[in-house]
Amino acid sequence: MMKQLLGIYMILILGLLLAACNPESIKTIGATKYYVEIDHSGEKYKEQGNTRYKYELAGFNEDGKGKNLTFTANHSLKKDAYLQIDYKKDEVITYEEVKYEDIPKKARKQLDDNHDNS
Hints:
Blueprint (H helix, E strand, L loop, with lengths): L1 H19 L2 H5 L4 E6 L5 E5 L2 E11 L5 E8 L8 E7 L2 E8 L6 H13 L1
Antiparallel strand pairs: 1-5, 2-3, 3-4, 5-6
């Protein structure tokens, strides 16, 4: 009887742990975070009947190293917004909007310099 209860508790704990794990978190393991500023409305196009927006932007990691990033969205992104992009194996995995203050200092400086030069 004790072994059965222990088995049930173990299954419940494992289930809770798996439920707590976000699939997005798993996909971003080993990804490099880059930061971009949305400076245009994106290139609008149709794909299988759906409207998409393509963005090609300069992104900077926490060390200030840059990379040209290309990604798409299903809506036009807010101009002048800042995004944190998870990049792995030559592709953008996910992105989310972040506050300017939350961007690492070296990346922020590069974004500012890039903005002044555009």
